[in-house]
Amino acid sequence: MSIKNNLLEIQATLPEHVTLVAVSKTKPVPDLQEAYDAGQRIFGENKIQEMAEKSEQLPKDIAWHMIGHVQTNKVKFMAGFVSLIHGVDSLKLLEEINKQALKNNRIIDCLLQMHIAEEETKFGLNEEELEALLASPSFQGLNNIRISGLMGMATFTENKEQIRKEFLYLKTVFDALALRPKTNNFAPEIISMGMSGDYQIAIECGSTMVRIGSSIFGNR
Ligand SMILES: *Cc1c(COP(=O)(O)O)cnc(C)c1O
Q1: Are 101 and 144 in contact (CB under 8 A)?
Q2: Residue range(s) defining the domain that contains residue 176
Q3: DSSP secondary-structure letter at 74?
Q4: What's the CATH number where 102 sits?
Q5: Which of 3, 18, 82, 111 could bond 34 through an S-S bridge, CB–CB 3.0 to 4.6 Å?
Q6: Ligand 1 pocket, CB under 6 A
Q7: What's the CA-to-centroid distance between 28 and ligand 1, angstroms?
């Protein structure tokens, strides 16, 4: 199967309200170009350096999503061009993104990453931390970021019911947030959940954005 065929096959199964992020981390530029030529315009990377280098070499109408864990000292290397940052899980990081966005005269869309998996190692906020972040005076003063939704990663398991439970939990948290008044830096619309192994379940649970790598580009 070619990258193009994989992509078209997946695209055909996605409902219209679900956006596909093609996760191209570790893959060479010609692979991304092939996906681009097949119509894909949103690419996800998990390393800032790699994303910056690829963005230099590929067409300018690509929307680059940072899906990995972000170190605050590296935000400046993507602030000029990144389209959406999925893995924001601290106020400190959000403050740095805001600072670098301001320098670039931009507003950067961010998703807050929630901890939904059983594993201890995954990054993300719990509900209490989410509340504290949103309620903090510091957050309310950030004018160059926008919280445009939530992101989560389910436990790496074969147990589909476990995965479903975790995605439904994220959906519940999102639905409660979406009832709140929108502000200039808070307008939740996106639920980023679902990868190659579990995106069908994620869509059944209300995902609006799936991040798919190996099913498009092959194993890493
Ligand atoms: C690598 C990665 C993906 C894509 O994983 P696949 O299983 O290859 O589809 C999605 N989300 C995040 C955060 C990732 O790091």
Answers
A1: yes
A2: 3-217
A3: G
A4: 3.20.20.10
A5: 3
A6: 23, 25, 46, 67-68, 153, 195-197, 211-215
A7: 16
With the CA atoms of 103, 105, 106 and 110 taken in that order, what torsion angle do they form, in degrees rounded to the nearest 10?
20
Query: Six-digit token pair at 194?
Result: 């679902």
pLDDT tens string, the chain, 220 residues long: the values are 799 999 999 999 999 999 999 999 999 999 999 999 999 999 999 999 999 999 999 999 999 999 999 999 999 999 999 999 999 999 999 999 999 999 999 999 999 999 999 887 668 999 999 999 999 999 999 999 999 999 999 999 999 999 999 999 999 999 999 999 999 999 999 999 999 999 999 999 999 999 999 999 999 9
Angle between helices 48-57 and 29-37 in degrees, nearest 10? 60
Nearest atom of ligand 1 to the alpha carbon of 151: 13
Cα 177 to ligand 1 centre (Å) = 25
Q: How far is the CA of 189 from the centre of ligand 1 (A)?
A: 21
pLDDT on residue 17: 97
How many structural domains comprise the chain? 1
SS3 at position 44: strand
Which numbered atom of ligand 1 lies nearest the CA of 87? Answer: 13
Q: Which amino acid is at 149?
A: G
